[in-house]
Amino acid sequence: MIWAAGPCCPAAHILCSSKEGACAMTTILETEGLTKKFGGLVAVHDVSLGIREGDIFGLIGPNGAGKTTFLNVIDGIYKPDAGTVSFNGQDITRLSSERICRKGIARTFQISRPFPKMSVLENVLVAAVFGNPVAVKDPQGWAAEVLEFVELPISKDTPAESLNTVQLKRLDLARALASNPQLLLLDESAAGLTPPESRELIGLIRRIRDRGITIFMVEHVMRVIMEVCDRIAVLYYGEKIAEGTADEIAKDEKVADAYLGEKYILA
After folding, report:
1. How far apart are CA 30 and CA 155, in angstroms?
2. Would you identify the CATH topology of the domain 12-104+182-257?
3. CA distance 244 to 227
4. pTM metric for this prediction
5. pLDDT per residue over 147-194, tens digit each?
């Protein structure tokens, strides 16, 4: 399987962890003063952050804090009213979603919207063919391999319209990975999962990172994000109020007041 290899990862299957090697100081994604308005509503206000290559970076906050809007600006669905987005040192602020995908950023969505009449394999095949920055020699084999990696426990010939919520989330993840990204954006992938399913997701996220893919995840399930993330940022009414490790966020009084309700106890 060929996975994304960023500037610090010249070969496939090499982990660029923030805890080892030169990748520790490499910033793969950076936003500066990012702002997005909808009429008089400021959904994201002056948000700056940097994500290091090889990290799993989390974004949390209450409903309506601007988290998904922030992802939508990064991947080109929305254009910001102010600020910039840089990926691998290149300004991608005004690029289309298609060009951003081909540069190496893929994402999942809160609500999966596959092609319902197409099979699971065909859905992933579309991403393999049209979302990949380079031509895949065997797109069908590649799509099947990605499906195996995400451990979707159904036949690849199953129509997407027959999948349940959990299976749709795995299919959405497979479609994102089929484009061979360097950076993967996850939008509430743990929503609706049982505790055992959440633990399986944690393992899968770590395996994805171990393949050399940086992860930026929006999540409400604290047991997932606190366990898996290297760093976490917190949005509140569109503004970043905190950033740090899981332990630092759990002890932050501003975060407790705005979101967690009380100081979060890490197991």
Report:
1. 39
2. Rossmann fold (3.40.50)
3. 14
4. 0.88
5. 999 999 899 999 999 999 889 999 999 999 999 999 999 999 999 899
